[in-house]
Write a structure and sequence with these properties.
The chain is mainly beta. The protein has 3 helices and 8 strands, in the order ααββββαββββ.
């Protein structure tokens, strides 16, 4: 996981100077809350960076860090004792995002101008670390790293020319323990862009 993150960050860092003449106007940074379904669900954060080489089209790099701390109450009155499960799911994802400005045209000037939907798909690597602790067996840990992909979309609500509130909803496919798992992702965050998005 660390090697993949390092490689993607180095690739992004070396790509930026090549577009120095206009990159400053086409880069955005984002961050916010992220929820991933499955079991009791995982909650955490997403941070990202995006580059728009052409209008409406963006290459995005995202990192998600989500957590879950659950108490398995069914074992509390057995010989196993109180059992606690701590999970940490991380993903590093990269892929295209396509914006649809004007999709709400004809549904009111304010909506068409400020609410901009998008669709995206991303690919990358995910790591799940789980720790189980109980009175009887002590602490047991397990971890796995696997390929992951997502497909979904969302919308930007532009509150200022350089700031927007972004929502995202999608399907996340992981492949831990040599089998596939389907999860849903839901998030909300803030986006800041160098270039004004007011007229897009």
């Amino acid at each position: 996981m660390k090697k993949t993150i390092s490689a993607l960050l180095v690739l992004f860092a070396f790509s930026l100077p090549a577009f120095a003449q206009f990159a400053e106007e086409d880069i955005e940074f984002s961050g916010g809350y992220q929820h991933i379904s499955g079991d009791d669900g995982l909650d955490g954060y997403r941070i990202g960076i995006g580059w728009n080489p052409i209008p409406k089209f963006q290459l995005a790099l995202n990192y998600d860090g989500t957590y879950d701390n659950s108490v398995l109450g069914a074992f509390a009155l057995t010989s196993v004792g109180l059992t606690v499960v701590n999970s940490h799911l991380q993903e590093i994802l990269v892929g295209p995002r396509y914006f649809l400005p004007g999709a709400f045209k004809g549904h009111g000037h304010v909506q068409g101008h400020l609410l901009v939907p998008y669709v995206d798909t991303q690919f990358g690597e995910a790591r799940l670390h789980t720790q189980l602790s109980s009175t009887a067996i002590g602490t047991v840990q397990a971890a796995d790293t696997a390929f992951v992909w997502t497909i979904g979309g969302g919308a930007d609500f532009r509150v200022y020319p350089h700031f927007a509130i972004r929502t995202n909803l999608g399907f996340l496919r992981t492949h831990f323990a040599n089998s596939g798992q389907g999860r849903y992702i839901l998030g909300v965050g803030v986006v800041w862009s160098f270039r004004s998005r007011e007229t897009q």
